[in-house]
Amino acid sequence: MTTGMAPIVTIHDLRFAYPDGTVALDGVSLSAEAGSIVAVVGQNGSGKTTLAKHLNGLLRPTAGRVVVDGLDTTRHPVRRLAGHVGYVFQNPLHQLFARTVADELAFGPRNLGVAAPEVAERVATTATSLGLEPHLGAHPHRLPLPVRKLVSIASVLTMRTPILVLDEPTTGQDHRTADRIADVIRDLSAAGTTVIAVSHDMLLVAAIADRLVVLDGGRLVADGRPRDVLSDAQLAATTRLAPPQITQLAMALPGRTGRRIVLSVPELVAELRDAR
Amino acid sequence: MADAPIISIVDLGVTYAGAETPALRGVDLDVRGGEAVGIIGLNGAGKTTLALTLNGVIPQLVPAAVSGRVLVAGMDCSITPVREMARTVGIVFDNPEFQLSQATVAEEVALGLESLAVPSDEMPGRIAQALTAVGLAGLEERSPMALSGGQQQRVAIAAVLAMQPTVLVMDEPTASLDPAGTADVFAIARRLNREAGMTVIVAEHDVEALASFADRIVVLDAGRVVAQGTPAEILGAVDRLAAIGLRPPQVTELARAIDPTAPDVPVTVETAIAWLGARR
């Protein structure tokens, strides 16, 4: 949950246009408190990934300001920002280059000057948390795509940055692995890491997010608690967001007008039991 | 719905070259013409391998030891040339980017027709028909790379449809799509199946989408078919699913939590509303 501390990420009136003039972000303002989990949703082309890439300096604002962990991204090189913001690409092919999974996981912290024994400890703990122990000796590119994605997540986790940006962390994952990723994100948040996750996976979003930000056509059209944002039927229709099935059921049940939005199965079970 | 199976798989085993364990073992599966079949299983359970045996890519193009038999429309998939199989079985994969290579949408859809040596005067009609079926008429001259992921996946489906297959196989077709793209792909699959009578097989993690699409769901676990039945039978067996790491639709989980022994549990929002209403 949010800790009520000062924001560790501040985005002020961010505007970004690609060299061909296409405006990808049009005046987005957003802040995130340390230790919070912010989910960014929206259709393809809404500007989610463009926004995410501003958080570690991969893209620089055309106008506006992005400050992460006290650093203005226009004033610091990507390698400096890398110690503060971990970034997991949507496509693991953009990220993996070592010969073994173990080397891949060790690369980031080694590069940050972390001492060898601690690097080894981080590699071991991270591999365990994501179930990657059996693959540590494997060549990343010989692994199936979903496992490669886990490796790309793990290789950023070992850097232990205070801010973590994940672009579609659960794409292509089965339920078991998606749950594992959700657990890892929750643990990181509990330990104080700020997580910003771009995702289409509404089950993940409903399960972990403190805040839900909706982008549409490069603009921020909603920002609030998932329960509040998902209760906006008009917003869901215009942005074609699909709330979790249990939320859809609760909203469709007769006689529930005015009752609170349900985000999980246990919530609705409890409500229906109480109603008897 | 026709009675004779269009797909007949008997005791199929597949072991990839160099692999220690088989990717599929002892798979028996019949699919009737016009059936909508969902396949679920963890990553690595054998879903993609099964799909690739249906058009002969395994073992003809991907080296693997194959035992048993796969027949589609009477053709033995292990020996009927892949190009020939493509007239009957169309396959759409998870990542549309990897399937598209041409400069325009029309050329993309024409590519498969050229490989089938379809007469050139027949092509424009087939291309138009296929693009209309996926709601992309009018985008013929656009570059596939300039389209959204959902549109790209619809181009990939159109490219397959133009070949007029009787069986459409989709392997995690919505894995890289946003919610709108996912809804569109399932709407197309449903229409092709319900209105055009096409046999459609979809391997997918999204059990909610499958529950309202499939006549039958097949569960793969570690290369074996461990269960098959109606969505209600398969997805209602919540404990069995959990034991192999799969989850039911959320409405099914809700119904099982309320009544662990109910003989029939809902698997879609619509049936859940009725189910809950009947218990008030």
How does this structure look, described?
The complex is a heterodimer of chains A (276) and B (280). Chain A has a six-stranded mixed β-sheet, with helices on both faces. In chain A, strands 2-1-4-5 form a four-stranded antiparallel β-sheet, with helices on one face. Helices cover 37% and strands 22% of the residues of chain A. The longest helix of chain A is centred in the middle third of the chain and has 16 residues, at 175-190. Chain A is α/β, with parallel strands linked by helices. Chain A has helices at 48-54, 78-81, 101-111, 116-129, 145-157, 175-190, 202-208, 226-230, 233-239, 245-252, 265-274, and strands at 7-17, 23-33, 37-41, 63-68, 71-72, 85-88, 163-167, 194-198, 211-216, 219-224. With 280 residues, chain B is an alpha/beta fold. Chain B is built from twelve helices and ten strands. Chain B has helices at residues 47-53, 57-60, 82-85, 105-115, 123-133, 149-161, 179-194, 207-213, 231-236, 238-243, 250-258, 269-278; strands at 5-16, 24-32, 36-40, 64-72, 75-76, 89-92, 167-171, 199-203, 216-221, 224-229. In chain B, strand 1 and strand 2 form a beta hairpin. In chain B, helix 6 runs parallel beside helix 7. Chain B is globular, with a radius of gyration of 19 Å. Chain B starts with a strand and ends with a helix. The mean pLDDT of chain B is 93. The A-B interface holds A 42-45, 144, 146-147, 171-177, 200, 202-203, 240-242, 244-246, 248-249, 252-254, 265-266, 268-269, 272-273 and B 41-44, 94, 148-150, 172, 175-183, 205, 208, 245-247, 249-251, 253-254, 257-258, 269, 272-273, 276-277.
Break the fold down into its secondary structure elements and pairings.
The complex is a heterodimer of chains A (276) and B (280).
Chain A: E1 7-17, E2 23-33, E3 37-41, H1 48-54, E4 63-68, E5 71-72, H2 78-81, E6 85-88, H3 101-111, H4 116-129, H5 145-157, E7 163-167, H6 175-190, E8 194-198, H7 202-208, E9 211-216, E10 219-224, H8 226-230, H9 233-239, H10 245-252, H11 265-274
Parallel strand pairs in A: 3-8, 3-9, 6-7, 7-8
Antiparallel strand pairs in A: 1-2, 1-4, 4-5, 9-10
Helix pairs in contact in A: 3-4, 3-5
Chain B: E1 5-16, E2 24-32, E3 36-40, H1 47-53, H2 57-60, E4 64-72, E5 75-76, H3 82-85, E6 89-92, H4 105-115, H5 123-133, H6 149-161, E7 167-171, H7 179-194, E8 199-203, H8 207-213, E9 216-221, E10 224-229, H9 231-236, H10 238-243, H11 250-258, H12 269-278
Parallel strand pairs in B: 3-8, 3-9, 6-7, 7-8
Antiparallel strand pairs in B: 1-2, 1-4, 4-5, 9-10
